[in-house]
Structures are given as C-alpha cells and as structure tokens.
Design brief:
alpha/beta, single chain, Helicase_Restrict-Modif_Enz, disordered N terminus, Helicase/UvrB_N, ATP-binding, hydrolase, Rossmann fold, globular
Length: about 625
Amino acid sequence: MLFSTAKSLTIYTLTTFPQDILFKYPWRKYQQRVLDELRSHLTDRHLHIVAPPGSGKTVLGLEVAIRINQPTLILAPTLAIHNQWIQRFCELFLQTSEVPEWISRDIRQPKFLTIVTYQGLHSACNHVETSGNEVDAEDNEVEEETPTVLRRSRNHNRNINQIIKGLKQVGVKTIVVDEAHHLKNEWWQTLIRLKDKLNPVIVGLTATPPYDVTPLEWHRYITLNGPVDTEISVPELVVEGDLCPHQDYIYLTTPSSAENIIIHDFRENAQRFFNELREDETLLTAIESHPVWLNPTQHLEVIYEDISLYSASLIFLHSNSRSIPEDHLKIIGASEFDIPHLDYEWMACLLEFYLFKEKVHFNPYTEHRTTLENRLRRNGLIAGRRVSFSKSKRVTTHLTSSISKLEGIKEIVSFEYEKLNKDLRMVILSDYIRKEYFPNSFTNTIEIKKMGVIPIFEMLRREQISDLKLGVMTGSLIIIPQQALAIFEEKAKRYGHQQPACSPVPFDDRYVVIQQNEQLKHDITHIITQIFQRGDIEVLIGTKFLLGEGWDAPAINSLILASFVGSFVSSNQMRGRAIRTQKGNPAKTGNIWHLACIDQTIANGGDDFQLLQRRFRSFVGVSNDEPAARKNAIC
C-alpha cells in the first residue's frame, strides 16, 4: 500500500478514489446542474463556482474531486474550514467517523488526498513552523489574546521545490481552492508557483468573489480560478428552500460626547494644518522648481505616468495665484477657468508626491520634508504613505467601536426576545474581547467605555432582560449560564472530558466560567454550539475569529454585527451563518442587524457608514420602490 523514499516521505500508491464512494443525500438543483455540465466546464482545466454560504459548496467540491478522480490537494482559508472539509468527507461520503490513512493533513507528508490551509502550505514552502492556532487567512482582525504565529516571511519559498516534488510523487493533478481570495500577498506567490509547476485542474469555490478589490487583485484572482462558470444567487436558493427567508436591518447611532470631542479635534487640526500648508512658501518653491513645471513638454512621459500628481501641482500653484502657462493648459486640456479649487484630496495628492513619490528633485528640501512628514504623522494625517485630511485611523476606530452601539444592541436584543422569546437564537459578533471589564471581584460596577465581547455581555447582564440566557465564546474565555452546566458536563463527557474545571463568575453566580485545557480546546466549540442549538444559551457573544467561517449552527435566527471591521468577504461569511435552513424548522427566518455610527462632521457619514455601504453592495433584497424590485446595496 505504501513505501518510503530516502527522504522519509510517505508515498501512497493509491491513484484513484476508492470505488463506491457516494454522497448520502440528494443533490440540490444547482449542484446537479453543475455536475451535469462538469465536462464542458473543465475544458479549460478550471471550474469556478460562486454560491452563497450554506449552499453546499464543500460537498460539491468533494464530489467534483471524486469525479475528476486524481490525487487531490484541498486548500482552505482557516483551520476551522480545513477541519470541516475532512469532517464532511468522512461523514457524508465515506459515512464513517474514522479518517482513512490515505488522507493527510500535512503538506510535507502528502497522500492521495491532502487537506491543508493556505498558511500551512506557505509555511512549509518557507520552513516556517506554526503553532496549532493559525491566523485567519484573510486578515488580522482576531481577538486581542490570539498570538500571531506566522511572521512575515523573507525566505521567498526556499523550500517550495521540495514541496512540489512531494506532491508530484503522489501524482497530485487536482487542486481545490476554497475562498482563494483570502490570501496575504506572499501567500499568492506560493500558490501561483505551485499551480505553474503542477499544471493541475483548479476547482475554485467561493461565496464572495472579491468584487471590491483593485483591478490587479481581481486579475490575480481570475488567473488562479479561471472565469466564473456558474453563479448561484441567494433568491434562487431561498425559492428552492436551500436558504431561509431573511432580512437585513440597519441600526444607526451617533458618537458619544467623548467620541465627538475626539472627532471634532481631528477635524479642526486637519483644517488648521491644511490652511497652513496651502500657503507654505517652501512647498511652493519646491513645486515651482520641479522640471515638470519648468519644462512640461520635455517630461510628457512622466506627466502621463500619473496625471493626478501633475494636476495636483497645477491646482496648488493656481491656488497661490500663479498664472498657469499655455503649454500646461494644453497638456491637461483645460482653460485656467477650469482648474479646480485646492481641496483636501488634491492637497493630499500633492503631499504624497512631495514626500514619497518624487525620489530626486526634492532632495534639496529633505529637512523640510522630514519635518512636515513627522508633523503630519503626529496629527494622524498619514497612514503608511497615504496622506488624508478627512480620514484618521483613530477617528475610524472610535466610530466602528463606538460605545453608542451598546444602546443599539440592548434595544435589538430586547425587541428580538420580545418577539421570539425562548425560540431566540442570537449571535453577537465583536472585534475585541476587552477582558479589563471582567474583574475578579464580587461586584462589577466598572463603567463601560469600550466596545467588545465582555462589555456587551456586561451590558446585557446588568439589564437583566427577563430570563435571557447569555453565553460568551472566545478563544480564551468561555461563559455559560449556571443552569446549562449539567448539560455541558454531559456533552463534554461524550467527547472524553471528565468533569471539566469551572468556576462561578465572581460577581454573578448565575454564570459559570469554563476553564479550558489543551484537550478541551479542540472540542469546546462543538460543545458550546450544541448547547446553543438546544436553547440553553439564547444569546451567544463572541469574536469573528471563533464564530466565523466553518462554524455552523443552523438554529441562528438573529445576528448582530456589532463592531465588525470586516471586508466584503468577511461580512458575507458572517451573514451566511444566519440564513441557513434548519432541519425540522421549516418556518425559520433570519434577521441580520448591521450597526453603524454616523460621523456628523463629514458629508459621507464617516468611515463606519462607508463600510456599511460597501458591505451592502453584495446583499440582495426587495426594494421599497413601486413596483417592488430586487436590488443590492443601500437604496
């Protein structure tokens, strides 16, 4: 069955899937359609499927791999999804709980079917060791207590040839890429090189194509996955009964008094700095001495390489009463009357040119540039190498994590509990844990000044909404109602955990803290999920890191995205948890609540509202127009 090479690489001689592997359930209509058309889809050696969360992409990907019937590598974005692939294959196809020996979880020891994360692949290709807690492939928006286990690689895939050799030895000819847009830049390089060397059939599966990325990123995504072969809409799946009826709601808040002071201070400082810079004599002299201003026709290639930088220079000079010569006006195709006023955006463009992009001609002004850059950074007007007078990371953080959202959460929870009572199965997601609000004392009267998992738990606990049963699930803190402890211990015992350690919440004996050890950590999510499904927890509060992709609790009928700084991809994945159907509950519906804090000092509503608008571009719903129509985005 197997042999070892001199490198001790275990190689399996299995070249096809075992016979009689059969999916245990009927195929959904769209799945059957894809399978019926599989031969034509694979003529370009790519199959690219777009379908919403909960639509069964994982089992479809497994069936496609079985029908292609070659040694296969499956790449997943997170450990949770990685485990889900193995679990679904064993449970729904092999119909066993035992993982066969021809499946590998280690890219360094590939077998007929190898299932790993993108991070695991990249780490192996660079000799980087990772702990068991790999980071989310899409971003670093994880809990504060979660250590970063993958340092930025500078090894440039020095071990990739050995990894490719191992995959070739087992004959890998199919690669399934699950949510492949979830990749850091250096991980893309690893994956593209792997594809080039193996020339495999690529099966790309995604719920959320990265429509909101740059053209370069989109090209990279399509180069890997190929053009979209079939895209399944949410309404189609609702009609077919594959997703439940659902509605997205928006709850808007305004900043607290303290947050407003911070926002107003930033706006005033930005305006004061802008007014100073628009009359800066050194900056004016530097721009006037640049060759592009002095001899534009001799530098057309440079000008057209980035016309916005050239335009910003002309606008700045024009605002300082400099006459714009005719040859400049011909280049931009305008008269002097058409030149725009100098505003924040044009000033930011000019400063990026002056501080960062021009490498030679501004060298005589190095001292001025350094002083100016430092001042801009101290005032929060530079992030990386981008200048902005309207955006600030600090302001954005205060908006996305505004304490005002707690009042919104309280009202939403009260409303949902009033309507659903004991049938409520709500999940609330936040970005941070904020353990400083969980003291080891007999009372907890700490004033809540920050948004996070524990502040949300504390606010709802103090409100004492009827007999509402709260729970907390993060990687480092698990809280359940005391009355759920017996069922927790019963279910833990089924996983082989005898009497897990626990202690009452110091300031409220109605709740219990579960002490996790290394063994329990592997099963705690499944156990808490089962308790939540039963209704022993009615409102579960956690982080995206733990309750994200791959986490499945079909009973969810209400989701609050509290302080969720997510992209198009992340938010749709979260939302997908609430719109799945539930066996035995044909009347299930899902409510998804999106909270945003409005910045009243800026016309576009601020970064939090802009993020909300971006998120809603991917959501489909029924408009309020007459006649009603199916639309996306905020109408």
